[in-house]
Amino acid sequence: MDVLSDVLKAVRLTGAIFFERHLHAPWVGESPHSAAIASMVMPDAGHVISFHAILSGSCWAALVGQSDSCRRFDAGDIVLYPLGDANVLSSAPGMRGLPDLDQYCRPKDRPLPIVTRLDNEGADYCHLVCGYFGCDARPFNPLLEALPRMLLSQMSAAGQSWLSSLLRLAAEEAERGSAGSESLLAKVAELMFVEVVRKYITQLPDDSKGWLSGLKHRHVGHALRLIHGQPGKPWTLAELAREVGLSRSVFAERFSHFVGVSPMHYLGRWRMQLAIRRLTIPGVSVAQAGEEVGYESEAAFSRAFKKYVGVPPGSWRKGRSSPA
Questions:
Q1: Strand partners for 63
Q2: How far from each other are the two terminal CA atoms of the chain, in whole angstroms?
Q3: Residue 323: pLDDT band by 50, 70, 90 thresholds?
Q4: May I ask the CATH class of domain 211-321?
Q5: Which CATH topology does 3-203 take?
Q6: Tens digit of each residue's pLDDT (9 = 90 or more) over 101-116
């Protein structure tokens, strides 16, 4: 079981490249918190992550209001804001701008991306593509909890080569108005996200904590693969510990150390994430959704659902289907 792929599928990660920027210094662009524009850029997503990828030149990236977060951003680099923080890109450090919410409306007469060209003679050129990822944040998205607020990925030469080529191809296809160009851009963005996270995992220190570090750990990673591979199995702490080759106490301590919650709490939260996906399917009953994630009775599932999600499954489904 590939745990990261399983999570990305269950939380419905989708991507979109929204802007292509051709810029010459001096320039600055400030993006609002993703919650302020989510309904325009990713209307079906529970949570929105923004990103910027640079194809040529260099610039500076920072969290709004945090000058110590400012980092140089070179060709082949990608910066993600997993929690959707307001951020600023600029041709020099310390510059600020005013977000224009109108620019985030999807064009009705042409496909994405929205292309901007600012040509100031004699200035340094910078070519960017910027966009968004949509995903579920609730009831449980362990990846969001494990990523930093600002993640700058400096790609390897090989990674930079294939990613830059794909981004350029997608941008060129969109500029020509080719059929399916938006879908191509979306898939390229999703590949980019996976590559950034994969690289981040490899760079984590061996003694670091968190869900992503747990994936690398011999015993914790094995337990996560078991849980994700058979989430409906009636796992116990003793059985998981036996499977990974540790005593109950050592396994429980080690899992909690890396993942931040106990193995059984993690299993319960993950089951609810899967159950919610089932509950969105017309015709799937509450009892069926519960049975598929390991609960023998509707009553037991409803109790667990309310514990982790805050409301019974029937109420959650009713609320989701009610008009906004």
A1: 87
A2: 38
A3: very low
A4: mainly alpha
A5: Jelly Rolls (2.60.120)
A6: 888 887 777 767 677 7
